[in-house]
TrEMBL record:
Signal peptide stretch: none
Gene3D superfamilies for this protein: Immunoglobulins (2.60.40.10)
Organism listed in the record: Pleuronectes platessa
Immunoglobulin domain span: 28-133
Residue stretches spanning the membrane: none
Record SMART domains: IG
Domain of life: Eukaryota
Protein name: Immunoglobulin domain-containing protein
């Protein structure tokens, strides 16, 4: 544990315990999903329990893809997602579900949370990249009796994402 001494009596002490006291972790960071299906994107988050002798409480959690007038636009208020997004948040984790996926849903999704403290907000970066695509099935002949099948999602940039089925 490292302790940084304050430079004046007005500055708070900062305690570093191997991990940033504010953070968001999303896994996986790249998702490929089929048009018309649904996807779930999950992030966990953490924050200090106290700042300047005040308890820290999370007041708002939300997901966004766009920023308007320097403020992130909550997906729940974005017309293109009306009736298709749901948040399931609690215990320092939040899952975004998007149903009836469209090509236009291909984007980078970021999670943000705001606390009751003036400097108490945090946005996960770089976010989760979602690619919505059609399905491609590839086959590989392993032997005369055995064939391996792969379900692949084409992505606009980079190699396709494939899973063995």
């Amino acid at each position: 544990m490292a302790l940084e001494e304050p430079r004046s009596t007005l500055e708070p002490r900062v305690v570093v315990q191997g991990e940033d006291p504010w953070g968001v972790r999303c896994t996986p960071t790249q998702i490929c999903a089929v048009k018309g299906s649904k996807v779930q994107i999950r992030c966990s988050y953490w924050h200090p329990s106290r700042i300047d002798d005040h308890d820290v409480a999370v007041e708002k959690t939300f997901w966004f893809t766009k920023v308007q007038d320097s403020e992130p636009v909550d997906l729940r208020s974005a017309s293109e997602y009306t009736g298709r997004v749901k948040y399931d948040c609690g215990n320092k984790a939040c899952t975004l579900t998007i149903t009836d996926l469209r090509d236009s849903d291909s984007d980078v999704y970021q999670f943000s949370f705001t606390t009751n403290q003036p400097t108490g907000s945090f946005t996960g970066s770089p976010g989760v990249s979602l690619s919505v695509t059609g399905v491609q099935v590839l086959t590989t002949k392993l032997s005369a009796c055995k064939t391996q099948y792969f379900l692949c999602c084409e992505r606009p940039r980079g190699f396709p994402l494939c899973s063995s089925v």
